[in-house]
Amino acid sequence: MGYTKSQRRQRSEQEALHPGQVPQGREMDNSQPTAQQRKVYVNIPLPDDAKNEEGRPLVDYGRNKVRTAKYTPLSFVPKNLFLQFHNIANIYFFFIIILSVSDPGAKNSTPQAS
């Protein structure tokens, strides 16, 4: 969603102020939902009020993992074949290889020494 320059300036002014304060002559835009605040505990155990009866966290957040690899060990062969056969020449050569390997008319293609 794009904002005009004045809308961006107004939003940055509103975000810079403490909650509940509005610049004079302007109304605060409450049309968008506010983000839920999240407590982060680093290198300390979760307090009891943040755990359920089984000792697991009450809220399960998604992972922030970023994967930049093109292939995984499982997807290497299918993705590589898919990308190779995007080139029409590779399909042609694959067809020629199949024809040469499965030639039903040739009994023995190697010459016999007598």
Taking all residues together, what is the mean pLDDT? 78
Number of strands: 0
From the alpha carbons, calculate the radius of gyration and give it in angstroms. Answer: 32 Å
- Oligomerization category of the chains in this entry: single chain
Descriptive account of the structure:
The protein has 114 residues and is mainly alpha-helical. The protein has three helices and no strands. The chain has a domain of 27 residues. The chain is 31% helix and 0% strand. It is elongated. The mean pLDDT is 78.
Short characterization:
With 114 residues, the protein is mainly alpha-helical.
Q: What's the layout of helices and strands?
A:
Blueprint: H1 5-16, H2 76-84, H3 88-101
Write out key terms for the chains shown:
elongated, 3 helices, single chain, mainly alpha, 114 residues
